[in-house]
């Protein structure tokens, strides 16, 4: 007979609480849990692998993605779950390429064009948002945090951004998922102002390293997920 685990044993094995295990069950993220003749819950090796897969996916992907994937797997929609993971892998590849692209941009002295779009010193927030690939709300937030500065059109009061501020916004948009502290961002933008390329390159190397670490966690999550799929 396959080994079984009590909730306490499973919680200890995974270094979580029994409440966390119950929450995963209530969210339909693992197979239905059987009960003994005395109505006590117990877990099988299939449940153990499901929990391992879930915990690994949480480390490598956003929590909603991990939950959605495990929910799909429980419903038997394996291919849909795999395609969801595939999209996340594509997204991290795009993010890496963007960081590398912006690193190349930093070294450019001529910033009159970006991605075949004309850059001026009087761009509206909507124009800047399109060029940088971010929402205007993100730009307003960065301005509120003192990371960027917009001028005001004296005729209508609208925000106007220069090419220098646009470059900052592009840098912020490329590193927003790898730099979590405002002070780190401020130091980086100060280095950008003074053309301190050594500091800037160091920051981008840290960003790329964080992406590499996230990729490794994602691959570990995928490995555990595939083991779970093969258990069925």
From TrEMBL:
InterPro entries assigned to the protein according to its UniProt record, in alphabetical order: DNA-bd_dom_put_sf (IPR009061), MerR-type_HTH_dom (IPR000551), MerR_fam (IPR047057)
Annotated ranges, domain HTH merR-type: 4-44, 122-191
GO molecular function: DNA binding
Ranges in coiled-coil conformation: none
UniProt-listed Pfam families: MerR (PF00376), MerR_1 (PF13411)
SMART domains: HTH_MERR (SM00422)
Domain of life: Bacteria
PROSITE patterns reported for this sequence: HTH_MERR_1, HTH_MERR_2
Keywords: DNA-binding, Repressor, Transcription, Transcription regulation
The name this protein goes by in its record: MerR family DNA-binding transcriptional regulator
